[in-house]
């Protein structure tokens, strides 16, 4: 298991633009973000990773996306300054950083087609967002110290300013000056230098120290999600591969994952996904589904499983590094069925159905971990036959215990076999609960228990497991702290109603000293997380009609990656910008698809 994350993320900053302002060039600052994600309950301010930021950058759009970081760097640095909040002080800072910002745009001030004093005068015009050249002339007349500072002993005529502006336009540099000006404003802002209120208003600088998702622009939010997609796709591409000659590779792993995301997003079969994706991105960057299935089916099944074990481990490492596994988690085990509309075959599990519906199904077992901070899927394993529940559960429990600290595991009454109990004991010891089926011994236990009281019996004969498990009978209307009827004692006077439908019985190796009926009921009720995971699994499963078991297992593992990526993104801070995000499943799939088809080769 990875070490616990620090309480709050930091920005490691290198700011060469600040060098001439007299503030530190290299430093680290702690970031503050919103106190929680209201949908998940996560203390998201503690779920970030350190980011490294350097300035200046020749990209105003990127500066705007970093504005929330700049606001906090400004607060971190503001105690370094002992200057008044005045236009003259601000103008001095503009002149101090201008040349280094020009260098970021690969421009030597000395080679510009206008004289240096006019260069700085045009910058003053742009940073103050003055609306005209007469307005610039008036500003310099009203602030003679600024005029002197830029080398204008006398303020030139308005015509002189127009001529220099036109020279910049002819050299196609006017827009560059506008971009340089925005970068200068942000450089002064993040240095902590006091900003005139007019600058804050005209540039719409949000100086809010605490960041929430609602404080950022849609463009910044989209780019933050794309950053997630870039990082997660890069992780997956190091784990997943096909048996291909590297000299003849036409499409990257990222592009194939993009195709799988598109199939899920559009609910279109893999073999037809290229047709619809090609309309948006062009056929040249979208691989064909037939080619993908050919690559998948050429892999050994063991290789598919080992590759995805690595890919899932990378995601679990991210969960752990960001503190999502710091606290114990509960586990819920279940299976989900994917209908196969073709002929019956060995890879599917047929079930007794009406005569007109003999459709077998693909069955996958899921083990979901959850607490107030996280929901994570520890795998989706193909159940090849009904007698494999126990071995599949052992495999999934091994993954869970290797990455997190399980507290309890819960199974529904479908998994009642003694071998399943043995698997739970091997993985977790006593800390497991299974809802019991109403066999004779269970019904007798319920009938002996008063309808409004919980009951406990040790070593009930209800399964083939040895030693026998204990059982708690819990009223279906558990509404208060009730007296536990303990069938190990003989001095209790009972008044049972003889009904076998008043209680739900849970099997466990814990006894009435180690736990209570209320805890069993409360914890088991949260097993609904696995039902939610089942629905999510089906919704993010790439669409394929293939009857090849390798293709089905590959798609199931891709769906597991999508589920865990979605959970990670919604419960931690984003990379690069350290932003809290709440994204839908379709937004994530769209970001994966777009990055895969527009940014990878």
Report on the structure:
With 601 residues, this protein is of the alpha/beta class. The chain folds into three domains: 1-216, no CATH class; 218-296 and 551-599, no CATH class; 303-535, Transposase Inhibitor Protein From Tn5, Chain A, domain 1, CATH 3.90.350. The chain contains 21 helices and twelve strands. The strands form two sheets. Strands 6-5-4-7-8-12-10-9-11 form a nine-stranded mixed beta sheet, sandwiched between helices. The longest helix is centred in the C-terminal third of the chain and has 23 residues, at 549-571. The chain is elongated, with a radius of gyration of 32 Å.
Structural descriptors:
601 residues; alpha/beta; Transposase Inhibitor Protein From Tn5, Chain A, domain 1; 3 domains; nine-stranded mixed β-sheet; three-stranded mixed β-sheet; 12 strands; 45% helix; elongated
Please provide a brief summary of the model.
This protein is α/β, with parallel strands linked by helices and 601 residues long. It is built from 21 helices and twelve strands.
């Amino acid at each position: 298991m990875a070490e616990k994350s620090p309480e709050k993320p930091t920005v490691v900053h290198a700011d060469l633009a600040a060098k001439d302002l007299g503030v530190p060039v290299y430093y680290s600052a702690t970031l503050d973000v919103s106190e929680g994600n209201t949908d998940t309950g996560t203390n998201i301010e503690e779920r970030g990773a350190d980011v490294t930021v350097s300035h200046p950058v020749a990209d105003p759009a990127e500066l705007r996306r970093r504005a929330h970081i700049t606001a906090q760097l400004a607060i971190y640095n503001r105690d370094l300054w002992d200057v008044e909040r005045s236009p003259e002080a601000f103008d001095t800072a503009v002149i101090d950083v201008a040349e280094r910002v020009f260098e970021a745009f690969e421009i030597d001030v000395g080679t510009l087609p206008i004289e240096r004093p006019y260069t700085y005068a045009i910058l003053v015009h742009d940073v103050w967002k003055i609306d005209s050249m007469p307005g610039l002339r008036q500003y310099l007349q009203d602030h003679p110290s600024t005029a002197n500072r830029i080398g204008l002993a006398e303020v030139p005529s308005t015509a002189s300013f127009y001529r220099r502006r036109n020279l910049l336009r002819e050299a196609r540099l006017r827009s560059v000056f506008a971009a340089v000006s925005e970068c200068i404003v942000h450089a002064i802002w993040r240095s902590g230098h006091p900003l005139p209120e007019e600058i804050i208003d005209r540039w719409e600088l949000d100086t809010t120290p605490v960041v929430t998702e609602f404080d950022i622009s849609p463009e910044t939010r989209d780019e933050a999600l794309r950053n997630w997609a870039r990082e997660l796709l890069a992780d997956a591409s190091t784990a997943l591969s096909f048996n291909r000659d590297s000299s003849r590779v036409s499409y990257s792993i990222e592009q194939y994952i993009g195709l799988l995301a598109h199939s899920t997003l559009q609910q279109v079969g893999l073999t037809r996904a290229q047709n619809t994706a090609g309309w948006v991105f062009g056929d040249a960057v979208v691989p064909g589904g037939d080619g993908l299935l050919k690559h998948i089916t050429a892999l050994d099944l063991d290789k598919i499983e080992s590759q995805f074990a690595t890919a899932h481990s990378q995601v679990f490492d991210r969960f752990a590094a960001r503190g999502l596994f710091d606290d114990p988690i509960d586990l819920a085990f279940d299976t989900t069925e994917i209908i196969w509309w073709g002929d019956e075959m060995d890879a599917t599990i047929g079930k007794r159905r009406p005569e007109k519906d003999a459709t077998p199904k693909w069955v996958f077992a899921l083990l979901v971990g959850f607490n107030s901070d996280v929901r994570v899927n520890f795998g989706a394993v193909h159940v090849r036959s009904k007698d494999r529940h126990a071995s599949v559960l052992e495999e999934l429990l091994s993954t869970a215990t290797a990455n997190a600290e399980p507290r309890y595991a819960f199974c529904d009454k479908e998994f009642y076999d003694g071998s399943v109990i043995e698997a739970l004991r091997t993985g977790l010891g006593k800390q497991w609960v299974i809802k019991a089926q109403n066999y004779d011994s269970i019904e007798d236990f319920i009938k002996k228990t008063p309808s409004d009281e919980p009951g406990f019996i040790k070593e009930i004969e209800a399964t083939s497991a040895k030693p026998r498990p204990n059982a708690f009978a819990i009223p279906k209307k558990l509404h208060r702290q009730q007296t536990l009827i303990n069938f190990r004692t003989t001095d209790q006077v009972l008044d049972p109603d003889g009904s076998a439908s008043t209680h739900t019985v849970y099997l466990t190796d814990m006894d009435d000293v180690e736990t209570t009926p209320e805890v069993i009921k409360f914890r088991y009720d949260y097993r609904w997380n696995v039902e939610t995971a089942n629905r999510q699994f089906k919704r993010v499963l790439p669409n394929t009609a293939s009857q090849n078991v390798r293709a089905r297992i590959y798609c199931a593992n891709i769906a597991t990656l999508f589920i865990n990526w979605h959970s990670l993104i919604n419960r931690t801070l984003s990379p690069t910008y350290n932003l809290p995000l709440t994204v839908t499943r379709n937004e994530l799939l769209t970001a994966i698809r777009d990055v895969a088809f527009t940014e990878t080769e």
